[in-house]
Amino acid sequence: MGDQKNSISRDKPETGDATKSQSQTMWGGRFGGGPSAVMQEINASIDFDKRLYRQDIAGSKAHARMLAGAGILTADDAAKIEAGLTQIAGEIEAGEMVFDPALEDIHMHIEARLRELVGDAGARLHTARSRNDQVATDFRLWTRAAIDQLDGLYAGLQNALLNAAETYAGSIMPGFTHLQTAQPVTLGHHLMAYFEMVSRDRSRLADCRMRLNENPLGAAALAGTSFPIDRHKTSAELGFDKPMANSLDAVSARDFALEFLSVLSIGAVHLSRLADEFVLWATSAFGFLKLSDAFSTGSSIMPQKRNPDAAELVRAKVGRIMGAHTGLMVVMKGLPLAYSKDMQEDKAPVFQAVDDFELCLVAMTGMLEDFHPNTEAMKKAAGLGYSTATDLADWLVRALNLPFRDAHHATGAIVKYAEDNSLELSDVPLTEMQKIEPKITNDVFSVLSVEASVASRTSYGGTAPDNVRAAIKVARLELLNEK
Ligand code: ARG
Predict the structure, then answer these.
(1) More exposed terminus of the chain, fewer Cβ within 10 Å: N or C?
(2) Long-range pairs, 304-307, Cβ under 8 A, ≥24
(3) Residue 199 and residue 205: Cα distance in Å, rounded?
């Protein structure tokens, strides 16, 4: 074996102790030597937190304006800072910023570049601020934007669900419990169940947004500041409802991220259930639907295969998203107040979960816009498994005034006769039914078809096609009124 010195393979060459690093020009007044290469590597977050640059610049601009308004900075310095920050945003967007782990994170990168551009004015920006309140502010702003972005995609998914539900409002399929045929339902009704879940997911997102929308900026390192800052002003400017009330809480709270990840986890669970049904329905055993070419792949060995990979991956992504939630819960558990560097590990799971979730929403929407149910096969399957047995029992209650338990028992006996004689319920001769329940009349056959079954389910929230159409109408109006 080769060099065993280092058991972990590293793709970066080790260097000895660095001389004073770039970041130390920010905090290294009391340091002699520089950090080791490993220290630099474990400390740096720039690889992922560069995604916060927009929020960091917005937060810094608001801070600078507020400082000038309070007479802590001159108007001239504030103007220089603002112009410099605008230029830096352009540079980052153009891909011109060189990211250097020695500068640790996005906050230091932007500040260092600002000092290059506007000198002393840039060096005054950090007055009455710490990276602790800065990063908390940036991350809240980022998460808020992510919520808004995901909510827009959710609306698209709901629209796709409504369109498909409308098309298939009268298409009969088996409804299952225990994945055993239970009672006939319509595909429109089934899809509207997901619409409802997604509505709740969106309202959970909105709740989370409401709670996170408070401003940590101005809490400084942990205790607040002796400068006469105006936290209400930066709050208004950054679109926060108000400043966070406690400076210790402001810099150490990450429950907004935990709540967000838990909301995404629940949302991902819902998407995975729908995805799983697509996978199941696309099997040749079910034969309920064909996924479009756009959302299927072939097999490299079995030429006949058509695999629902997109649905499978949506089903699987929930693992990563829940993992992000669990991971951050564990990072936060037991952390003393206020800021600890542990909390730098908050961003990667949130970024990853948002990326995964976004992809799931887009893929699921695409599949719904482009799926082809085999409505004939669904309807045929709906009639299997004595799915209208409950309708028979209900008829015995309604027409013969039997107590439901007796009706249930008599129906069970009729189902057994049908099964023993390989008959559908509607093919059991009346005379045979009368051997079990003498008062049964010919009228019973009117409730045994799947069409009659679904049409009769008119109770509020039931599967009758007219109900489903009415529910779609209400939902569509709600969706339209959001805009
Ligand atoms: N990169 C850091 C983070 O994301 C910024 C805050 C650093 N604060 C500090 N006191 N070292 O948590």
Answers:
(1) N
(2) 306/282
(3) 10
Burial of 403 (0-12, 13-18, 19+ CB in 10 A): exposed
User: 396 near 425, Cβ under 8 Å?
Assistant: no
Rounded CA-CA distance 231/480 in Å is 37
63 catalytic, yes or no?
no
320 alpha-carbon distance from chain centroid: 11
User: Is the Cβ–Cβ distance between 440 and 430 less than 8 Å?
Assistant: yes
The residue whose CA is least distant from atom 1 of ligand 1 is 105
Please list, in sequence order, all residues whose beta carbon lies within 8 angstroms of the beta carbon of residue 435, skipping any fewer than 6 positions away.
none
Residue 215 in contact with residue 62, Cβ under 8 Å?
A: no
Would you say the CB of residue 137 lies under 6 angstroms from ligand 1?
no
Is 344's C-beta closer than 6 angstroms to any atom of ligand 1? yes
Q: How many Cβ atoms sit within 10 Å of the Cβ of residue 96?
A: 10
For the stretch 263-281, pLDDT in tens is 999 999 999 999 999 999 9
Compute, in angstroms, the gap from residue 134 CA to the centroid of ligand 1. Answer: 9
DSSP line for 318-377: HHHHHHHHHHHHHHHTTPPSS--GGGGGGHHHHHHHHHHHHHHHHHHHHHHHTEEE-HHH
Distance CA 478, CA 483 (A): 9
- How many angstroms separate the alpha carbon of residue 347 from the centre of ligand 1? 11
Q: What is the pLDDT of residues 7-63, one digit of tens each?
A: 555 555 444 455 566 776 677 788 887 888 999 999 999 999 999 999 999 999 999
Token representation of residue 381: 């399957």
Tokens of 293: 């070419």
CB distance 131 to ligand 1 below 6 Å: yes
Say what the pLDDT of residue 20 is. Answer: 63
Dihedral of the alpha carbons of 73, 79, 82, 83, in degrees to the nearest 10: -150
DSSP secondary structure, 412-446, as one string: HHHHHHHHHTT--GGGS-HHHHHHH-TT--GGGGG
Q: For residue 103, how far is its CA from the centre of ligand 1 (angstroms)?
A: 12
Q: Are 372 and 281 in contact (CB under 8 A)?
A: no
